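To whoever is on call:

I kicked off a structure prediction for a single chain this morning and the downstream step that reads the tokens threw a length-mismatch warning. I double-checked the sequence; it's 123 residues and nothing unusual in it as far as I can see. Pasting both halves so you can look.
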Amino acid sequence: VQLVESGGGLVQAGGSVRLSCAASGRTFSTYTMGWFRQAPGKEREFVAAIRWSGGSTYADSVKGRFTISRENAKNTMNLQMSSLKPEDTAVYYCAADMVPFRLTTRSSEYNYWGQGTQVTVSS
């Protein structure tokens, strides 16, 4: 499975950015997909995840501001980020969990990772 993120960049506080993750693999629709982020000097942290059926979960820090979605027919996953804050600045990674039906926030349980895309929020 290969994952490729796109859509990062520089945005002002209060603005919006949409990240996308393109996945290869014939069974994309059964994967749980997640977004994680890592800021300089900090550990990678969970952002959001979405099950194959569409059920999702979010970190408290982004709840109400970020929306995760997926299009199984197109093998893509998206993260719509709104009301961005400087503390959202990080490299954002998409990840895939091969265990069907699970909805996990633990990075150790994700099997495949993208290369990451930088999101910088200026104040």
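Update from on-call: the warning came from a stale cache, not from the record. Cleared it. Sanity check on the structure: The longest strand covers residues 90-97.
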